[in-house]
Description:
Layout: H1 3-10, E1 23-36, E2 42-57, E3 62-66, H2 73-80, E4 88-93, E5 96-97, H3 103-110, E6 113-116, H4 130-140, H5 147-160, H6 177-189, E7 195-199, H7 207-224, E8 227-231, H8 235-241, E9 244-249, E10 252-258, H9 259-264, H10 269-276, H11 283-288, H12 319-323, E11 329-330, E12 336-337, H13 347-351, E13 354-355
Parallel strand pairs: 3-8, 3-9, 6-7, 7-8
Antiparallel strand pairs: 1-2, 1-4, 4-5, 9-10, 10-12, 11-12, 11-13
Amino acid sequence: MSPSEAAAATTPAPGPAPAGPLVEVDHLKQYFPIKGGIVLDREVGAVHAVDDVSFSIPRGETFGLVGESGCGKSTLSRSILRLLEPTAGTIRFDGADITHLGARRMRPLRSQMQMIFQDPYASLNPRKRVGQIVGDPLALHGKAKGANAIKTRVQELLEVCGLNPEHINRFPHEFSGGQRQRIGIARALALEPKLIVADEPVSALDVSIQAQIINLLEDLQDEFALTYIFVAHDLGVVRHVSDRVAVMYLGKMVEVSPSDELYAKPIHPYTIALLSAIPIPDPHAQAARAQIVLTGDVPSPIDPPPGCRFAGRCPRATDVCRAIEPPLVEYASGHLAACHHPVGVAAADLAGAKIASQSPASAGTDLPDAREGGRSWEDGPAASLV
């Protein structure tokens, strides 16, 4: 059987597309308690890993999540999959509220949401053969009955993912990193999910192998009508695969935009700093490029500062940034940003701007002012970010 025939055999029959987004996250909070005390184990604080985040993902979209390590990307994705119990907020999947569903009621939904893990060496059981790794979910969820049916389905999935069907009897240590990640992708596809969370799926791979895996994920999305949440540090990779990109900083979403617009016209200073770190494959252009170096330390997620959490590292910050949390403002083309002093936003853009419904409850309610304090956005030290 050819790869195209295998893909057709494993693709679910087409039907009418349901209305509404596949994933809806409404003011989600994910706090991790800190316990202290010798006699009584009391809660003395909490790590604000995800703090009042809202967004939705249409069916068939690739939603990119980017930000520094520790900003809450992976925690957010695991909360959506209900691998973590949310502290507050609402998560809806395929129109159903799954925020506090128990293990029994979540079990039928597990087949519809799957995950591709970052480390292909740690995510596969070294004691099991490939046939067991990919085939066990089929048996557990009743997607295939009988040893022969499971074996046939596993071989089809391996072929779709670019592996040899004869690899079914091998152990993970017999494969390269790229091949192991393909096995992980085959395992994620086995239950015909609607949503796949790819948690930095290429960061542990060589650059040439990264391109192969990215191309494979794009092909599979078209063939199986998949929706992706793509978590990554590499903004170059995110630009290639994502329809929309969300930038996170210390548990907050600071900018959400269509991919092309985010890279062409970023608004938030933190996003601009991240984009400046992407290397340019031209030594002369890279040498002539103005480098943005952020000073200061990332605040503690245990006791985040009032106002904008990026204010301590932002050259555009003023007193209002340190006192009032900026609301998430919606500009043209669905571009959202949470900044009192957005970059490259003209008065005409402000005329059509409004506070987004996804804005945190703790944020202010005033739109940015082009002449706050008697200076324009392009004046002063902020010019280095324009």
